[in-house]
Amino acid sequence: MCFLRHLSEADAFETLAQAEPYLDRIHGVGLDSSELGHPPSKFANVFEAARKKGLKLVAHAGEEGPPAYIWGAINALQVDRIDHGIRADEDPTLMQQLIDTQLPLTVCPQSNVRLCAVEKMADHNIMAMLRAGVRVTVNSDDPSYFGGFLSDNYAGVAEHVGMSIAEAAALARNSFTASFLAPEQQVPMLDAVAQWLDTQDTASA
Fold first, then answer.
1. Residues with Cβ within 8 Å of residue 148, at least 6 apart in sequence
2. Distance CA 56, CA 50 (A)
3. pTM of the predicted model as reported, rounded to 2 decimal places
4. Which end of the chain is more exposed for a tag (fewer CB within 10 A), N or C?
C-alpha cells in the first residue's frame, strides 16, 4: 500500500485508516508519486503510525529527488528499503552508509530511463553501485506505463551496462534477502540461485 506524496500527510492518515480492516493482508507501506517538492519528512508522523501497526516501510527517494531525500527516508521515516535511490552516488557519505547498513535499493532501470533520471541505459549506475557493495536489486516499475517487466530490466542492464554471471546471481540473491519474506522462506530461493550458479560454472568449465 502506498501514500501519494503530492497529497498531504492528512490524506495519508486517511488512507491508513481506510486500510485498517485489511492490515492482515498488507505487508508494508510505501511513499510514491512525484518526489520533487515533497521530502520524506513531510510524512514522518504517518510512517511512525504505520510502524507501530507492524508494517514494513519503504519510500521512493533519490530518483528525481536529491540524495538529501534518501537521507530523509532513512532518518525521518526509518525505512526498511529505498525505492530507486540511484542518486546516492552523488554523496560519498551516503554511499558508505548504504554499504555499511546494507539497506536495500529497489532499482528500476527501464523506468529510470523513461523518466529521464538516466539519459540512456548504458549510463545507468546500478552495476557500479553493486560493485561498490551497495545491496541493489533489479525491478520493474509500472510496466504498462514505462515498459519492461522484470526479465526485460535484467536483459537491458546485461546488454547495455554489462554484468557477469556471478553478478547476475548476486542481484538475484539481493532480491530475496531484500524482500519481506521470512528468513526460512528465503532459503529455498537462495538455494535455487546457488544451484543455478553452479550449473553456469559447470557449463563454462
1. 110, 111, 140, 156
2. 8
3. 0.94
4. C
Residue with cell 532459503: 187
Distance CA 151, CA 15 (A): 32
pLDDT mean over 129-134:
98
The H or E element containing residue 21 is none
DSSP-assigned letter for residue 28: E
Residue whose entry in the numeric block shows the C-alpha cell 538516466: 118
Q: Distance between CA 3 and CA 36 in Å, rounded?
A: 15
Residues in the chain: 205
Under DSSP, the state recorded for 48 is H
- Reply yes or no on whether 14 is catalytic: no
Query: Per the residue annotation, which of 20, 48, 63, 167 is the catalytic one?
Result: 63
pLDDT at 203: 66
